[in-house]
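Backbone geometry:

***
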Amino acid sequence: EVWVAEDSPCGELEEPILEIDNVEDLQQALESPPSSGTIRLAPGTYYPPSIEWVDIVDPQYDTRYANLMLKDVTLAGSTEGETRIVLMRDLENSNVGFFVQGDACVRDLIIDGSIDNDYIFQVDNVQEFTLCNVVITDNSHEVGNTIIFFHPWDPGTFNFSVHDCVIRCPSYVSSWYYGIDISPFRWSSTGGPAPVINFEWKNTTFYNLGCGVGFNNSDPENIGTVVLDTDCYFFSNVDYKVYDWGSHTEHCP
């Protein structure tokens, strides 16, 4: 379910492009990624181990144990064929596949989550994050897990885009399992208003999830606001499609 080069909906890759064909070089490149450029993986399957990442800039409040860390970079699969990343938890303190620390784009990839990842993507206080032409399969089946956790807290506008993707579990899981959990809040120490999140989701399918997309718009002043731009494309075996838990409103009936 991944497009080949001539059919990719994601547009041109950002320059410069760094070509990578092994896990060791990938993790090393992500420690000092090309500024606003692209890391492109050769065709094949990659098994990045969990490691403790050194902070790239200001420290985040949460763990840096993860398989991969992304900041100000596009991570892309090869336009020549299928590229797969398999996330494995092999450190006691690691429960995150991709820890997104700064603006990033992930495209043209197949991603398989392990049985122990609480989050495939943990995206903390990141102003620009895009997924395009990505198939994500989470094999955990653990109640309370989330495939993508988008979690801003500073004042200002945050943009989160998901285009032409597949987000799924191999079989149905309970209603407390999220495909995408958008969870802003107003961190009092930063001052200013709570964040506003523009969530654009198009041509993306959800399978076997308790909740496809969940958020809470009940308290804009203290929690934040999610502004939806979606086509409600396709859901299969999903209890709540796009659900505002604050108002108990279904946006894709």
In short: The radius of gyration is 17 Å. Residues 23-31 form the longest helix (9 residues). The mean pLDDT is 87.
